[in-house]
Amino acid sequence: MGELTSTHVLETGEGHGFATTKAGALLAWAQKYSLFMYPYVTACCGMEFMSVSSPRYDFSRFGSEAPRFSPRQSDLLWVVGTIVQRQAPILRRIYEQMAEPKWVLAFGTCASCGGFYDNYATVAGIDKIIPCDIYVPGCPPRPEAVLDGLMLLQDKIQSGDRRPAIVKPRIDPVADPNQGLVQLRRSRPSRPPV
Amino acid sequence: MAKALVELLKKQFASAIVQTHSQCGDETVVVNADSWKEVARFLRDHQQASMDMLTDLTAVDFPDRDPRFEVVAHFYSLSRGHRLRLKARVGDSEGENAEIDTLTDLWGSANWMERECWDLVGVKFKGHPDLRRILLYPEFEGHPLRKDYNAQDIQPLVPYREVPNTEKLPPFGPDEGMPFGRQTHAGFDSDEVN
Predict the structure, then answer these.
(1) Partner of B78 at 20 to 30 A CA spacing, among A83, A167, B32, B180?
(2) Domain limits at B19?
(3) Which residue on chain B is closest to A86 by alpha carbon?
């Protein structure tokens, strides 16, 4: 229970002891590790969603294990992929059917802000229709970024913070020019002649 | 091979053919809109043509031309292995009277392609059994692939959320995300956006 900072272990001994905490903190701690998810997968980001949910990256390690294909049983709505105007009423209805407390994660650039689809057909970000808690940018995002987003959401659940947040890159190529793609490519040894 | 076919068409429909040309070995025949179906039927049934497959049917908008639209069909003969592109010009400069005969009773594949063509460009196919929108929703007004349709004009099915800041939602920095006012509602004042 390392996350329960307000917990005080008063007495320890051979198989005995007790701890005190606040009920809200305990509840939040339970909630953040039992996020039943509703995957709303519409587009190519779904491939990356499969990757992050399969054993190699495996977000069930973080307590986001059980997919529930009924919005009434789920806590976390994963919006994975482009949302078009035609789907907007469906997405809105699914969100409304979810029971409180509920969270929404926008997976990828299209769900976050519409991406490069700047046209009559696409909703420019799901936050135009439903409130969104976490934005994971990327086209598609790396599984590590998705895990960062999930852990960011868990931090927010623990602290009771309902303000939306965006996953920042672990290494910002703008802040550190030595980490840019061009530099990385140049630093790689060139391919030997065939 | 297809060159001989063009000669055959010229002989058979001398008055109907507006123009022919050849680009990189692809033959194109432009016909009168009135004889569109007649030529297509000949292409399907004549032994030398035997076009048993309608690969694609679409339309192009040339806003400066009169007639404004060009309906394009691509035929392929599986038995003979040759292709032909057939075009017809329809519609006046205002986009009205864009009508042409349907090919649904000759090739089944024409059904959905003509619906798409009607949906996005607004060319009417006379005699089509079920000419509804196929990609967009029935509430949509206008035909978005016409050049006079502004690509950012959205017609949302769900009203957008009301947020105090109409420029950006909280987690996005000034150089991130899509501003709220970028897309415009078709047929509404810009004050009513959001």
Answers:
(1) B32
(2) 2-126
(3) B137
